[in-house]
Design brief:
The complex is a heterotetramer, with two copies of chain A and two copies of chain B. Chain A contains eleven helices and 14 strands. By secondary structure, chain A is an alpha+beta fold. Chain A has three domains: 96 residues, Alpha-Beta Plaits; 162 residues, Sulfite Reductase Hemoprotein, domain 1 (2-Layer Sandwich); 55 residues, Alpha-Beta Plaits. In chain A, strands 1-2-3-6-5 form a five-stranded antiparallel beta sheet. Chain A has a four-stranded mixed beta sheet with strand order 7-8-13-14, covered by helices on one side. Chain A has a two-stranded antiparallel sheet with strand order 9-12. In chain A, strand 1 and strand 2 form a beta hairpin. The longest helix of chain A is centred in the middle third of the chain and has 17 residues. The N and C termini of chain A lie far apart (74 Å). By secondary structure, chain B is α+β, with helices and mostly antiparallel strands. In chain B, 35% of the residues lie in helices and 15% in strands. Classes of the chains: A alpha+beta, B alpha+beta. Chains in contact: A-B, A-C, A-D, B-C, B-D, C-D. The structure holds siroheme (4 copies) and iron/sulfur cluster (8 copies).
């Protein structure tokens, strides 16, 4: 088969060709929606038209076979139209109510999981991990699978005070939403990088490497025509490793994960918030990271038991105070949680008012 | 095809959440590359380290991005992943597809790649996970001839992304899908030919819910908003109450500006003091809706923490009209890039450059006046820059005040 | 008269010798107090004893003659006991109720002003100014006098939502509480320093001078054996001038004052807050700084008209938002109010929610 | 004596607020130095610049501080202020005086100085404003022989200062006057002989009202607090209500922790959630009072904005007992200074050094454990230091957890 003529700079196909007729008709004229359950919602147009959405969990890594299965389902119930969400779930769009229950039955029969709508836990924003990234110090997909297996009730049926957004990043580059998530895992190195001096001068530029270090831990090592790293100053960010392959930072026994909590993205009620570090280190425990998973579940449960309706985790914590968060969850407070970097000034307490 | 025993990752086929391992094995049944990816991953799980090398530069002719080069250190043990590049396909606005289109995508991918995908990547691309260098041109020809183009990578505009917006949401203040499409088309060159100091991301959300996380993950966050009152349908308010909503606890007391009042009968909003946070509207979507002028707030600068901590985007233009052909937005973008170009060192995101050079330099370049809406609070220290023009202006104002006898402060 | 024998390291006299008997008796055993009016309050001990305090305004610069007059009054009504406050007022301490009214009459007759207690404006924390400091770019005492003449009703009788703490600093060293005041004036330079090159090498150390500049605006000027200053980078902090006398920064036409608002020190209700810049520049207008005074009065009046009871200025502004503060007061918002220094990250708005 | 015409500063004798110009003129009547100070000030007002030179080093034998050297550039025109040094007299705790003591102070000052004073300086000293170099030793002998010593200046401990506390306030949680006196006596050497990298200030407030502004203006802020319940006298609550206090609006809704409740009859406090902010207590002093253990919170690091912005003190020791002989507090101070000494560069205040070296280094040196009470919120970025011991501890904890089957997080 001959290879067709390539085209450049055409951009993506225009979205409108993928919109089902009911959307074209009601585009920009939706009136309201109702969440029916964690798996289903309905949008009602000013026209009176209704559009049911059934949201289905996805592992994000999809074999083409599975995408084709999505296509099969969409053709059967949705005239071939469907979409994915910004958090990588699949959404089947039903305009004919009579197809709704059959669709759901079929999904269940095929083993698909519906959920994530409303005050629920939905899919976990995550990154490549060992599956594809050179920078990874853990596997993101594995962590997500292990977490969501435990949290499944909150995806499918159990209500929470509000949405809980989870994320996993496999290194501090944080290709995801870790920095603004209700609860997230970020994989961290904890050992000072080593330098393969013999390759240094061929593969790296001295000023670039020195400049890459935010804490100025790197200085020239003229004897080796390479660099040396001051262990006292290194905070394991891996930036030197990114710019210079002979620098190696991975260590199977020391790489681990940290847990951050209390971030949010939207501006409802309170401003977007960064996630904050509460557990600085848990050993990397593939294939199921039991401690990290247990910690997340524990935090979700303490939140569920204590927060007010509509409060996100960060809002709840800000209401009760971080000292209370630590006492309610029983999480050890460590030196690592005290900022000693960019935001130190703004995160120390400057008042004698706090809770015992 | 080699048959790998994978006791560790097999553990991840158990449990209710859909398993990515199952997906990988599904692809592995018929695909050598996917098969080796499975074995390779099991190896990582057993040793607790990754084996991917630093990326190499690979791509398609005439483009500087769209493909992430990836090679394994264990290429001999796992030849199927010796090369394992990803191809970023620019997704359609808001991730809508037809089954026909997706089948076509799958067919091509099965032919030339691993059969594995990420639907979608964190930036928004439809990511095709794993292929070899010599397949890249063919893959590109197959996709582009069918109307699909590559997304961004490297120091370029990255693939823009948007929320579902007017397609299926009652709260969109502008057409996120169309703006996303229009900007992607307008800036094809910036997307495909890395010429920037570093990456630049657009994300568009139709309202403050920010369902595409733009404020946290885009150099330019375009967030829909309005200028006008929230209309209240008191009958629907009563409906919510009768269905058990505690309107004072759930709505009024959670309003951040305390501009609401409910006496058990009527819900009143002091619209002048509303900050349009969307809380009340989302909880009472049948009863409340914005009215008046629609547009967006433009915020600039979000990025991940490397290396001095994450940034959230900062409000730069409190309100802008967002209507086709989006000339105002596009002009603004060009001005923003021009200033960034003039001022950035390599690998400096725009937020970092603004932090270095000061917001004033940036605002003056893009011709936006200083406004209190841009800040959470004014500066605290007394170390201010004044230009000669500032001083002239201060003195002129004072002279004017002397004349009129009225201070303007 | 022979000079007596000096003693060293004796420290201050022990406080207890200066405490009136009623205080000694009720020390640590006060039960409550009542504010009678802005000039008078009474403390009641567990013992039932009462202690009236009459607070009197002071210009802080006192001639010994005036201190002696304080002594006369204290002897007449307070058995010779009295104190000064942390904000430099005088407090007459009356334990015999029958002496209270005569004291107040006498004070009035002598021209002393009583006030500052309760939800009032009290004395202005301030600094040396032209009276004594080499660093001054305005006169602090003069500004205070001009301000307080205008604000007198709030000292003597008029109520405000809460205390309003004022301060004046005559340079950015801010020897006072400007940085945490409800409203304060800080004098600022606005012109790049000049260097008397001929004296530089005798009087200054090159590295010290270069190191003194927070914005790295100073570099060596080898030709002149001196330094040069990059005008673009200078933010007029005067630190170079402090460490090196041949550097001069004063300029009669360009020196001026800035107004900052919204700070507080105590932790009641909300945490201590820094004051924030709202008016970046007003010309130095001795002897009465009419515009600065008018600005302060205007802010006090807008606060008085809009804040809730007990809200400090900063608390009121945080409730309504800074954008509303600017619109309510009509103050021009300038580039100078946008932080471009240490706290830039934390002061920009990171949310699409604000008021028009 | 020269007679100056002073039309500008004469303007400042008008108006109701007491006039410092009047004070200066009062002194000027009989004092040459004060007289020239008046003329000198008028000159400043007319030219809008100051004429004081950079300070010179002057002082008294054996002391490195206590006097601020001051010379005028216009010494020939105004010989009385050619030298115009200030002498800082260490004030008694909480500024209590007897008329006898103050008259003595005035008499000496009239004899050797300008007759002008600041009662008091911002740090707390009784400042004697303007004398000549050759009078300094005599002045010191006169004062010290009568029991008055000099205060601090230069890179030394500065004169400690405190609120009126137990002497005339119902809310003092410890004896501020006595602690102030005791620390001043204990550290006389540090006060008189500058040996530090820069200045160091103590301020002591008996409660969160912080009437001596310690959190904003002291390197070490010692703020009284308690551990225990707020006792409520419901009868007095009813009294406040009947006198017109809107208890819900003024108290309950202003409580920052929302731990109060008032149903029109009974005021209830959930003490476990109270942050001891003092709002309710100050507004209902007859009805509410703290109970239980008394002590203080120690905060470290406040300073003025030069040169990277002001600092407020940071909580370091959430609770410490403050009882004579204050051994615990004094030991802590010694440890703090030792660490500061080891780590500061010249002209670095302790807050700046903590910022540079990190709170951990400081806390470890003063042997204080990390506690969430020290922070407003945890760090946001993932860039953490771990010591080898930390790693050993983490691993040991995990091993323990494996054994017990229970996670401790
Ligand atoms: C489908 C999706 C947009 C898309 O283009 O794909 C979407 C759709 C809707 N969002 Fe969203 N949101 C989606 C991602 C987000 C994100 C982004 C993210 O999580 O990365 C956010 C910001 C999260 C954050 O703040 O950290 C987001 C914050 C919200 C909120 C604010 C929730 C809150 O109170 O804090 C609402 C309002 C609500 O829940 O009523 C909302 C409401 C909605 C509504 C009700 C809007 C509507 O009328 O259609 C939609 C269904 C809600 C639901 O799932 O409960 N959506 N929504 C995304 C679904 C992801 C998924 O698969 O689960
Ligand atoms: C594939 C993807 C993660 C995913 O699994 O979804 C990804 C993968 C990588 N990111 Fe990313 N980033 C991806 C979205 C993001 C996001 C999220 C977003 O765009 O919304 C972020 C945070 C937002 C931001 O831009 O700051 C992100 C922040 C980074 C950073 C930190 C950049 C910074 O300025 O702080 C790096 C480091 C770098 O650029 O060298 C990075 C670098 C990388 C590299 C190229 C690392 C490398 O040098 O090899 C990763 C390639 C992995 C691989 O082998 O495929 N990636 N990266 C995402 C792109 C897919 C797509 O095109 O749709
Ligand atoms: C006399 C003095 C202490 C001293 O050792 O000299 C003092 C004395 C009292 N203060 Fe104070 N405060 C004194 C300076 C301060 C300061 C420090 C400052 O202003 O530099 C503050 C912190 C200011 C700030 O937050 O910016 C201060 C914040 C308070 C507060 C908290 C006010 C608030 O709600 O924000 C109270 C509580 C109250 O007003 O009921 C208070 C309450 C009191 C009480 C009622 C305490 C008592 O029971 O005796 C005293 C009389 C109050 C009054 O003046 O209204 N005192 N008070 C100081 C008087 C200065 C003056 O001459 O006016
Ligand atoms: C006299 C006094 C102002 C007043 O009118 O009350 C004062 C006057 C001076 N201060 Fe101050 N400071 C005075 C309290 C303060 C305070 C307030 C406090 O102590 O509560 C501060 C802010 C708090 C702090 O310590 O940060 C203060 C922060 C400064 C600074 C900035 C220090 C910093 O680390 O940022 C300087 C600059 C310096 O040290 O070079 C400074 C320097 C000076 C010098 C020595 C400037 C100089 O180099 O000549 C001033 C001498 C003036 C003179 O000719 O008499 N003064 N200075 C105060 C001391 C009187 C006393 O002993 O009671
Ligand atoms: S977070 Fe790090 S390891 Fe994970 S995909 Fe991004 S760059 Fe790679
Ligand atoms: S890992 Fe980061 S902190 Fe450590 S040496 Fe490398 S660049 Fe510096
Ligand atoms: S961001 Fe707003 S407009 Fe867009 S999908 Fe979410 S709720 Fe709707
Ligand atoms: S949108 Fe937000 S601020 Fe406006 S009335 Fe509703 S809850 Fe209040
Ligand atoms: S604020 Fe400046 S000018 Fe005023 S006394 Fe302090 S150092 Fe001197
Ligand atoms: S005034 Fe300040 S900013 Fe300007 S040159 Fe001097 S030290 Fe630098
Ligand atoms: S700080 Fe507290 S204890 Fe001290 S005087 Fe003020 S209110 Fe009283
Ligand atoms: S002291 Fe403050 S926090 Fe505690 S109950 Fe009273 S108002 Fe609330």
């Amino acid at each position: 088969m001959a290879i067709p003529q390539r085209k450049t700079d055409i951009g993506p196909p225009k979205y409108d060709q993928f919109l089902p007729p009911v959307i074209k008709k009601n585009y920009g004229k939706w009136k309201y929606h109702e969440v029916i359950n964690h798996g289903t919602m309905v949008h009602v147009g000013e026209s009176g038209d209704k559009l049911w959405t059934v949201r289905v969990a996805s592992p994000r890594i999809l074999a083409t076979a599975t995408i084709r299965e999505h296509c099969d389902i969409a053709e059967k119930y949705c005239d071939g139209f469907f979409r994915y969400t910004t958090r990588n779930n699949v959404e089947f769009l039903v305009s004919d109510e009579s197809k709704l229950e059959p669709l759901k039955k079929d999904l269940t029969a095929r083993g698909f999981k519906m959920g994530g709508i409303g005050a629920a836990i939905t899919n976990v924003v995550h990154t490549q991990g060992w599956v594809h990234c050179h920078s990874a110090c853990t596997d993101a997909s594995g962590l997500v699978k292990a977490m969501m297996d435990e949290l499944m009730p909150y995806f499918e049926s159990k209500d929470l005070p509000n949405k809980v957004r989870l994320a996993v990043a496999c290194c501090v580059n944080m290709c995801g939403a870790v920095h603004c998530s209700d609860i997230a895992v970020v994989a961290v190195h904890t050992k000072v990088p080593t330098v393969a001096h013999e390759n240094f001068k061929n593969m790296c530029e001295l000023p670039t490497v020195i400049g890459s270090c935010p804490t100025r831990a790197i200085s020239p090592d003229p004897a080796n025509k390479s660099v040396k790293i001051n262990a006292e100053k290194c905070m394991y960010c891996g930036n030197c490793f990114t710019v210079c392959p002979p620098i190696s930072i991975k260590d199977p026994e020391r790489d681990g994960v940290a847990i951050v909590v209390g971030g949010k993205v939207n501006s409802l009620r309170s401003n977007p918030k960064f996630s904050k570090l509460v557990i600085p280190y848990i050993s990397n425990e593939p294939p199921r990271w039991p401690k990290a998973v247990a910690a997340i579940k524990h935090i979700v449960e303490v939140y569920a038991a204590n927060a007010r309706k509509h409060e996100r985790i960060g809002e709840w914590i800000e209401r009760i105070g971080w000292e209370r968060f630590f006492s309610l969850t029983g999480i050890d407070f460590t030196f690592q949680s005290i900022d000693d970097f960019t935001f130190m000034r703004d995160t120390m307490r400057t008042s004698s008012t706090f809770k015992w | 095809m080699k048959k790998y025993t994978t006791p560790l990752i097999d553990e991840l086929e158990k449990g209710p959440w859909p398993s990515f391992v199952t997906e990988m094995k599904k692809a592995a049944k018929t695909n050598e590359m996917a098969n080796d990816a499975v074995g390779h991953l099991e190896k990582c799980y057993s040793t607790k380290v990754g084996y991917w090398k630093h990326g190499g530069i690979v791509g398609v002719l005439g483009y500087g991005g769209g493909v992430i080069g990836r090679y394994s250190e264990l290429g001999e043990e796992f030849p199927g992943v010796a090369h394992f590049h990803t191809v970023r396909i620019n997704q359609p606005s808001a991730f809508f597809y037809t089954s026909k289109a997706l089948r076509e995508i799958c067919d091509i991918w099965d032919k030339y790649g691993s059969g594995l995908t990420n639907v979608h990547g964190s930036t928004g691309d439809l990511v095709l996970l794993g292929t070899k260098t010599d397949a890249l041109e063919t893959i590109f020809a197959e996709y582009s001839s069918r109307g699909w183009d590559l997304g961004g990578s490297g120091s370029a505009l990255r693939t823009p992304s948007c929320c579902v917006g007017p397609a299926r949401c009652e709260w969109a203040n502008y057409d996120t899908l169309d703006l996303c499409y229009s900007l992607t088309q307008e800036f094809q060159d910036e997307l495909h030919r890395p010429m920037f100091a570093y990456k630049f991301k657009f994300k568009m959300s139709g309202c403050a819910c920010d369902c595409v996380a733009s404020i946290a993950r885009a150099d330019m966050s375009i967030i829909g908003t309005w200028k006008g009152d929230i209309l209240v349908d008191q009958k629907e308010v009563a409906n919510y109450a009768s269905k058990g909503m505690d309107i004072n606890a759930e709505i009024v007391n959670m309003c951040p500006t305390h501009c609401m009042n409910y006496d058990g009968k009527e819900l009143k909003i002091n619209n002048a003091e509303c900050s349009r946070c969307m809380h009340c509207i989302t909880r009472m979507t049948k009863a409340l809706k914005p009215s008046g002028e629609r547009g967006a707030t433009i915020c600039i600068g979000a990025k991940a923490p490397i290396v001095v901590g994450s940034l959230l985007s900062w409000v730069v233009v409190p309100f802008i009209k967002v209507e086709p052909p989006y000339t105002e937005v596009k002009d603004l973008i060009r001005k923003i890039w021009e200033w960034w170009d003039d001022n950035a060192k390599p690998r400096e995101r725009i937020g970092e450059v603004i932090e270095m050079k000061g917001m004033r330099s940036f605002l003056e370049a893009i011709e936006v006046a200083p406004m209190p809406q841009q800040i959470r609070e004014p500066r605290k220290d007394p170390f201010m820059f004044y230009t000669e023009e500032d001083m002239v202006a201060f003195k002129a104002k004072e002279a004017e005040e002397k004349k009129t006898g009225k201070y303007k402060f």
